[in-house]
Fold this protein.
Amino acid sequence: MVADMMTADISIASITDTTTSTAFDEQQFAEPYPDGIEQHYWTLARNRKVLEAVQIALAGEDKRLVVDIGCGRGITLDYLRKNGIEVLGCELGHAKPISAEIAPFLQYDSDAVELSVEVRDTTGVLLLLDVLEHLPEPMNFLNSMADAFSNTHTVIVTVPARQELWSNYDEYYGHFRRYDFASSEQLFDGNRFKVVFRQYLFRLLYLPALLLKRMGKKRAISIQAPKGVTLLIHKLIARWFDLESAVLARSCPGTSLMLVLRRKQGA
């Protein structure tokens, strides 16, 4: 079970900046995001955390879009839409949508800055979920998104956490680094954004991950979707992560890090 839990720290991006392309094809998306992955405990827990952050960011606003940049197969997008969030996805690569119902809300082979002016001008929240770790200069990329989405007030970011957990998994999926509270300051321009929320996620996984690293063990690359009785097990584990997010100190180390950035007035 510990080994299975460790394989679930999923981080795939399909974003480009001026120097690097990290677009994935359908097969590369299928390895960490097979059919049924939306029922994996990691996906369930992160989706609920993202939904909570989006709902807080959009409180009191009507008709404001959310854009998921680097949306992959649309797993988080599907979850948000089912919970009443108006969200569109943009993906530089090409993937098979997680369901036919959400396909119309996904734009593949597209750069976010090429979305229509109408979409960009009505977007209140940007999602960059396990995206920025794939970029050599994430701050420059985030600034370019702020320029293109000039009315966006909030950016929700998740990245792999804690450099001491660096493994073959990070190398395989093209990560530049993992982040902690201090190094996460390198992700954004402090003149344009301020952090309104910062928290480690998946704290239960931290010690097993560290132990495996020190034992020299490699992580599995592909992720297996739960089936049968394991569906219930994954739901229970996901609820544990809900609980730990609520009761543990935000600075207690985990394998992922979430940031909620608010654009400064006039920036």
